[in-house]
Amino acid sequence: MTKASLRDIPSTDLIGRQVLVRADLNVPIKDGRITDDTRVRETLPTLRLLKDGGARTVVISHMGRPEGPDPGLSLQRVAGLLGDSIGGTVRFHPDLVGPGARAAVLALDNSEVLVLENTRFDAGETRNTPELARALADLVDHPPDGVFVNDAFGAAHRAHASTTGVADEMRRRGGSAVAGLLLDKELKVLESLLCKPKQPFVGILGGAKVSGKVETIRALLPRVDRLLVGGAMANTFLRALGLELGQSLLEEDKVELCHGILRDAGDRIVLPVDCLVAKSIEDGAAVRVVPRDSVQPDDCIGDIGPASRELFGGLLSDGRTVFWNGPMGVFEVPAFREGTIAMARSVATATDLGALTVVGGGDSAAALNMAHVADKVAHVSTGGGASLEFLGGEQLPGVAALSDR
Ligand code: ADP
Ligand code: MG
Questions:
Q1: Is residue 360 within a helix (H) or strand (E), and if so which, with residue range?
Q2: Domain 6-182 adopts which CATH fold?
Q3: 181-197 pLDDT per residue, tens
């Protein structure tokens, strides 16, 4: 069933209305500075539409994983950044719910934006308590005036008070819960990968672990023509082939599972043929390129090797649809970065050749930036976990909770 979207609300209906927006302002912060503002930029179309329509916008979001109030993870700084980006008044209030927060909402003028404090400072957020859901719904005017907009695709796979709880509560009160423009866009792109993707469809998975991505592998396999596997994830598959992997990161308890996946997938799964090894994964370590069957007992695999880069790049070049999640190696360490950078470039080249290219995952997005090709892919998802769960065939709770169109 299609979900209601912010676009369904006529702009003339927005003037003066209090709109509660669950945005994804979960930006990375290091030493008190925002190191990547992608998520803030991606939610601007929704906030601009509301501002231009004269709405009184109340923004809530989580940031990081605090277990209670944590001044280092306050959204105040993000509110400042939002003010610079959107132009016009963006206020901040240090509570999330309660009389102070409600008074700040009532003080808003048309076209003004208010950012409330980090939802994860409240223990009710991750436990999705009815109390917090009600308190969040109480922030805005009662239905049918109040509207809830969920634009946080990156949090849509979590059933939290600020994603599903408040949406359920707004609907229960006779109000509406609609998808924001970013959430809408993300779902449309990912749906196009599931429904009639242009062939050949090439999937690329990497990163640290098989677990957590198993459902995605299983769901993608019948749809893709090729699934290229790199990163530490490939190690567990290589072990399933009976290879020596030395001290490399792998999940022994997933070897049987990988064995089964390989048997079912036949030649659709493509594994690295060579790798970059060292005695330890750190800069300055002596690095060797070895075929995948020549890893020594004291070796550690840190990246795919040049023959694998070539093999993967070649298979990608005739893809018409490409989905990539997860780095090919320990790309945080410059000596083991080349495989992931080459993959980022290959995905960019496939885009130039006309493929629909979609990249999901924070680390993969960071790799695109490192390779200076972030603007050369069709779509970079703001939600790694959410995109994997969606492609794994799961109904995202944050989406399920929205009003039907
Ligand atoms: P994404 O954020 O794009 O979804 P993941 O979080 O799944 O990606 O995986 C990223 C992590 O995987 C990185 O920290 C990277 O260092 C790690 N990784 C990739 N290859 C290896 C490897 N061969 N050995 C150890 N860690 C690896
Ligand atoms: Mg990651």
A1: strand 356-360
A2: Rossmann fold (3.40.50)
A3: 999 999 999 999 988 89
